[in-house]
Amino acid sequence: MIPFYNMYLLLKIAQRPGWWLLLFLVPIINIVVQIMIIFDIAKNFGKGTGFGFGLLFLGFIFYPILAFSDVKYKPAKK
Known about the structure:
By secondary structure, the chain is mainly alpha-helical. It has one domain. The chain has helices at about 1-15, 30-45, 50-55, 60-70. It starts with a helix and ends in a 10-residue tail after the last helix. The mean pLDDT is about 95.
């Protein structure tokens, strides 16, 4: 239950609909969706594409940077 709730919260932070949680159950598509969410999270925290690649490849370093820095969540206008 907790991993699904974790992914649901990441979807909400990335401003994606909750039904995308079902896409994580489809092989190959789940990888594409996860990459899209990572870049959306970087964008919503005011970071660029380079930071998104950092989250993608070095998440154990870049997620704590988001957590412990003074950067604020600013939802992007859709």
